Amino acid sequence: MQPSVQWTHVSFRTWFPRTSTRVFSQQSQTVQQIFESRRSDCFRNLVQGQGTPKREILNCHFVTPPTRRPVATASKPLYLVGFSKPAATLLNLDPAQSRSELFLAAFCGADTQPTVPSNPPFASVYGCHCGNQYFGQLGDGRAVTILETENEITGQRYEVQLKGSTTTPFSRGFDGRAALRGCIRELLGSEGLASLGVPTQRVLSVVGTNDFINRPWYSDNSPLKNSPQKFPPDRMVSERAAVLTRFASSFLRFGHFEIHYMRGEHDLLKKLILHAFEVEFPEVLSNPSAPSFDEQVKLFVHEVVDRQAKLVAEWLRVGYTQGNMNSDNTAIGGYTLDLGPFAFMEKYDRHFQPFTSDKSGHYAFTAQPSAVLVALQIWTNAVVSVLDDDGLAKSIVANVPALFRDLFMYYWTEVRKNKLGLSLWNTQTDQDLWADLEELMSDTPHGVDYTVFFARLKEVGEVGDLERKLFDAFYLFDVDDGKSLEEKWLSRWRDWLARYCERIAEEPLESRLRVMSQNNPNIIPRNWMMYECYMAAGGRGDDRRDTRPGQDFEFSSLDAMMTSLEHFNEVEICSDLRFLERTPKEYQGKPGLAFLS
After folding, report:
1. Is 306 a catalytic residue?
2. Which one of 94, 140, 328, 358 is the catalytic residue?
3. Which of 21, 157, 348, 482 is deepest in the core (most CB within 10 A)?
4. In terms of pTM, does the model score above 0.85?
């Protein structure tokens, strides 16, 4: 039976024609001016649909979503929860606009949004591999792209999405909304990573509503609360809804390519690859060593592998675990995307995985490089299927594992070298130094805080600094303030520190401290810090529904956290000295913080 709703099927190759580029002015823009900057001929012959049919959507790259429902009324006004000035600068948006009614309407998906009639928002279709298993069609279930532009000053292209504003044909029966709690986490996680120099999507704002939605979460009195094992949420709770605005060079995922390969839609796949060249890898098109499409694809694969290798090494540098690394959460541009069940590691644990659905630890902290390699192999197999030269296609696929390992080891060596403050890496002695440190951090009773340890390591100059500096990172002292390390552990730590001090004696002090400060932040957005921010802002994920108007909540802690993350090594700017210390006792092991879903 034919569905009652007609959804417009559109190819990416008619999406953003280069010939119709209109860009931001060099002057800071108002909201209306930014939306008028959209490319004028992006879509052609579009028809808006209604409703959310549950079906496979074939032969297109994206569709126009249904008419958006207003998320605010006069009785339920919108309000600004969080705003990133550094992100606004990238969009050349005047930060003063963030307090205007037009800003709130534009970046929440309300019907008053100043869209260009010929360029309606759209939702894209993509598939999903989890490891080697394919799960079929997913797509933008609660995200819509509303804007695409180039910044005239930098030449950088940005695609802007709303998350949580509407349902789409890919919502799969869900409500298309986003919880305030998750939006605040995504804001702090994304902007925190950006400050730390890790490739990531950016978040412009979180707009609050006075709507409530039901979401699974952890009850205050769960019978499993004190379980040593992590567990998924145990009940439904009512949470405040919000809309998040995020942007990136594109939101192309591995799954965008894989779905067309799995369906045998080779023409759409080839068009998508050409689109990726234009929006993410223009250097591929301009490289004289790749005159043919087949050679361009070979270079394209190399660039994607390179970016993914660098990204995962950067995650390890700052103790970040993505949680869900399925192909629908992996950006072709090599940046962090879809910050959902993520966390920054507290106690060092090679097997750290906050995501309760990954029971086998396939995407755990130190398993992330292997997971990326699997994703790359599956994606590459899809991409090369459009090549005319079958021999070249096979050689590209066969080369990916060795290429990734070489590139990852290069970036991972740089990470370890910089975290230890070394100018050169001695493959044997320095690798042993790092491996022994990892073993000590893993095995020390009650654990060692990854971030605090490396932040204090830059202050170390002699063995006596173990007690004076490094003990700040040891969770043993949260168990018994009067207790000390057993002699065997003291001896092992002193031996390691003696070797380290001997090694850094060869390094110029000023350059060593500069490199270590850049790579060993004092502040990262830990889950407990984000918890305090979203609880204060009305984003409760507990049993107590607070129905006060959203404007009545307190956002100063969120603003202060944003400032602290922007200046992650400037202790004097830090809004809360607890940010510089190991996780407080009351938050250690807490469901929803130590693990989540």
Report:
1. no
2. 328
3. 348
4. yes
